[in-house]
Amino acid sequence: MIGYRFKEYTPPEDNRSTFEKLLDTFLELLVHTSGDVDEALDWLRQLDEEYKLTTDDYTIDDFINELQEKGFIDGDGNLNGGFKMTAKSERTIRRRSLDQIFGRLKRGKTGNHRTPYSGKGDENTSERRQYQFGDTLDQIAMTDSLRNAQIQHGINNFTLTEDDLEVQENEYRTQNSTVLMIDISHSMILYGEDRITPAKKVAMALAELITTKYPKDTLDIIVFGNDAWQIQIKDLPYLQVGPYHTNTVAGLELAMDLLRRKKTTNRQIFMITDGKPTCLKEGKQYYKNSWGLDPKILNKTLNLAAQCRKLRIPVTTFMIASDPYLQKFVKDFTQANNGRAFYSSLDNLGEFIFEDYERNRRKRMR
Prior knowledge:
Blueprint: H1 18-32, H2 37-51, H3 60-69, E1 73-74, E2 84-85, H4 87-101, E3 113-130, H5 142-153, E4 166-174, E5 176-183, H6 196-213, E6 218-224, E7 228-231, H7 248-260, E8 266-273, E9 279-282, E10 285-288, H8 295-310, E11 315-319, H9 324-337, E12 340-343, H10 349-361
Parallel strand pairs: 5-6, 5-8, 8-11, 11-12
Antiparallel strand pairs: 1-2, 3-4, 6-7, 9-10
């Protein structure tokens, strides 16, 4: 047996232009710098010095000029506040995040999602049933109905009655309202691990997925630290961790308030967090305890999980920490809500969220 033979690896040829190669790196740096263009360009210059990303014919300054010409950045450098991202850059970063995390998806235009149920929809099935009061004219299978009339009444004395009518079933399609909660407490960058950047990427990918493939669905994004507040999709690239504790209660209260206003049947909360709840707001004062699981904070959080359950709002928790006592809290929280929990690493966080989002879209809550 000859065994394995190893040879020098030859990477595939990259036929992209220098601008396209640099743009890919630049957009990645923008996510890590929370949209700070000047800082991203400084990092890019350092990478260029170390790895020779440019040539004598095309420098970083040429790249910056082309970024301005193509509408990716705006401003005049360090003269008046530096460069800033444009809407085009924000949109490109979201699409890039979608390709990175949900690359296997094919984007559609309908914005509807399939379920195992039949009903009113825009995709025909092979199923037929007898006409029922309330069925619309466009649902009637005319060919089958006329055939029934001929069989039952004959050709010479043609009569079409209600009993002859058959209805073509369409695939039921439903809508989903999702609130994505992102933990921006200080622990998201502690212990030498950047957890906020993957969370931002997943949020941008999910936002782009919904707006492109499922535009009839709704997505609200909440960040929570000492308090909780709603942000827009366009704000995601600029998201930063603050010197905050973790007020999970405030995040859940705001998420429930947003979902109460939705008229959709399917409502759900996705929560990305790496730590325990450590903060409550009582009036104008904050009650904080970073050591252990404070019973006062814990009980309030579990009570809200139970309230979500009564409102039929499942909470799916994506836990990106491996501490056993924190996982015990997530288990108790999930049991109180009858939701789901994934103990995810940063690498497969996006895959977990995609799979769970798609699974929930196939459900029809009663």
